[in-house]
Write a structure and sequence with these properties.
Rossmann fold, 14 helices, aromatic amino acid biosynthesis (chains A, B), alpha/beta, Dehydroquinate_synthase (chains A, B), nucleotide-binding (chains A, B), cobalt (chains A, B), DHQS_C (chains A, B)
């Protein structure tokens, strides 16, 4: 695989990856300069009517460029929502439905999600439920959404009682990842995206983890070829997992490494206070420490996890105001739990995650009590 | 087929029909005394947690009986919504989600829809989108929902700008049709249900249409064997169509005979003023008259359609306050339209419906101007 990676890096051409899901299969195109080039967007549109869903941070930067990538005879409308995780609500999705109906859009239309994971999740959910399902295309503009939420068909919104509690599985017709959009991404959000990239190495690919340890500096300096490579490798790992298990009955749960703890942090702090990737970063270190307590990881493994998170600019502590019980209260509601049993994703080794539903309460309590707080 | 119908009618045992949809296949059980008998509900429940969704008309009559059909170790909750089409909104579905989350329901739970089509559509949509999809079971208590909305997996809610505009395709695990529930159904609602029964004969089965002409009086007198037969035959016809075309790309559109005109009536009069089946009844006569104008039906055919609607106790006129333009305004938004082209379901003969997207404007205008008003 190392040879393959290097050969890709020589050319500037976009890479294409196919997510294999039978009749719901779709391509992911990754490269520089995709926005504004009709070769990448036009082939995937259904019908004449196009609704671009974006937010007020992304719209001034990229909305016009996306429109340039559409042919002149399209009926193009847009919904510009406020930026931020706090907007990921049913009310925001209702605004999208209102706009579609006000414009008289029928079921042969396409929604284009232009923005980060929040926009992608909401536009995807809006598409899933508008007239019982219309086409949509993901144009993710943050590293996190490029490597995570744009692959796999999970869409939805938060509820005051829990993250992503309302939603649907709905696959896009295509995902267009323009690495140029990362040039305007705040450094903190780049780090948050790197947390998910590191996650793929930790759960499934020790070789990729080593590659990331070697190239973290270039990634943070926005080296185009390295970014394209890391995104391609991440999407390929996620696509393989999703193709095995589209509706999360089995192996797909591994993608939630760090997420059970991370969701608890996000929910307790209020959505948006911690970036999702930051919470997942701390959560992955918690999962690694718990795996160490169970005798699966050795000291050096945990040090490597901690070091790569630090190199990516991620937090390695939990919030100072969060008790053991604060964690447990949110974790009880986690979607992975079956009946009333807590299920966690842990590491048998670096590059080898597993689903674990028999964690001794004493070990979990000890972790939640002793894990460093910021 | 006549022989098959007669042989069924001899026994009192429930009839079972399988809707063939691959891994989403499910049975429909039809008979007397199904509610309260654990043999019919228990086998289809997923997980321990059960949420019964019903309304304040049905709950006093049947909620306790359904609970008697559940084993003692289940965690059973209920949501009782107000009765009526005006409650078929996203806000009502949100109440179901709130109740599920407040009770800590995880994704291994089952929603039971106990009521008419409004309850079935909302509970189904709530199930489709709760934690991206949980199990649900339909227990329809009106004739309309027994022969129509409980088969096919359409779920959703209305929007101020259009009926069923927000929703999803989501299949139940089973449908339990207890014909005893029709004994408490108002006569007007029984007639509305008969409109959909007649529809199946008109679109696909001239033999069934003749059977209905012969037995309409017994059906309106709630003869149990005749009801079971009519429901079974209707569900079988719908199931065959749905199995051919689950997501309504082709033949399933035929099930919308009378619905384009009918939806226009409902939307213009305000949802609930006309019952859905009443609007469909008038809409079918409009479709028959338009088919006559196109030279497909002869005078006698139209008279037969009018006569069976009258025998079923259905209206055969459009609302007195509704102009041609009132019809056209709503019809323009119909989900069947592709791009901006109006599509109608018409009759080439009694028992043979077709999709038609080239109706001359003059013929449509003439129908909408001359069709009798009430």
């Amino acid at each position: 695989m190392q040879g393959l990676i290097m050969s890709h890096a020589i050319s500037d051409a976009p890479l294409t990856l196919n997510v294999e899901l039978g009749e719901r299969s779709y391509p992911i195109h990754i490269g520089a300069g995709l926005l504004g080039d009709p070769r990448w967007l036009e082939p995937y549109l259904v019908g004449r009517q196009v609704m671009i869903v974006t937010n007020d941070t992304v719209a001034p930067r990229y909305l016009e460029r996306v429109k340039q990538g559409l042919s002149g005879d399209r009926e193009v409308r847009e919904v510009v929502l406020p930026d931020g995780e706090h907007t990921k609500t049913l009310d925001s999705v209702s605004l999208i439905w209102d706009a579609l109906l006000a414009a008289g859009f029928n079921r042969r239309c396409t929604l284009v999600a232009l923005g980060g994971g929040v926009i992608g999740d909401m536009a995807g959910f809006a598409a899933a439920c508008y007239q019982r399902g219309v086409a949509f295309i993901q144009v993710p503009t943050t590293l996190l959404s490029q490597v995570d939420s744009s692959v796999g068909g999970k869409t939805g919104v938060n509820h005051p009682r829990g993250k992503n509690m309302i939603g649907a599985f709905w696959q896009p017709r295509a995902v267009l990842i323009d690495t140029d959009t990362l040039r305007t991404l705040p450094e903190r959000e780049l780090s948050a995206g790197l947390a998910e990239v590191i996650k793929y190495g930790l759960i499934r690919d020790a070789g990729f983890l080593a590659w990331l340890e070697a190239h973290m500096e270039e990634l943070r300096a926005l080296d185009g070829a390295m970014l394209r490579e890391a995104i391609h490798r991440s999407c390929a790992l996620k696509a393989a997992v999703v193709a095995e298990d589209e509706t999360e009955q089995g192996v797909r749960a591994l993608l939630n490494l760090g997420h059970t703890f991370g969701h608890a942090i996000e929910a307790h702090q209020g959505y948006g206070a911690w970036l999702h990737g930051e919470a997942v970063g701390a959560g992955m270190l918690m999962a690694a420490e718990l795996s160490h307590r169970l005798g699966w990881l050795d000291d050096d493994d945990v040090v490597r996890v901690s070091a790569i998170l630090e190199a990516a600019g991620l937090p390695r502590v939990a919030p100072g105001n969060m008790t053991r019980d604060d964690f447990l209260e949110v974790m009880r509601l986690d979607k992975k739990n079956l009946d009333s049993r807590l299920r966690l994703i842990l590491l048998r080794a670096l590059g080898d995650a597993c689903v674990h539903d028999a964690t001794p309460k004493a070990e979990l309590d000890a972790l939640l009590e002793t894990f460093p707080r910021g």
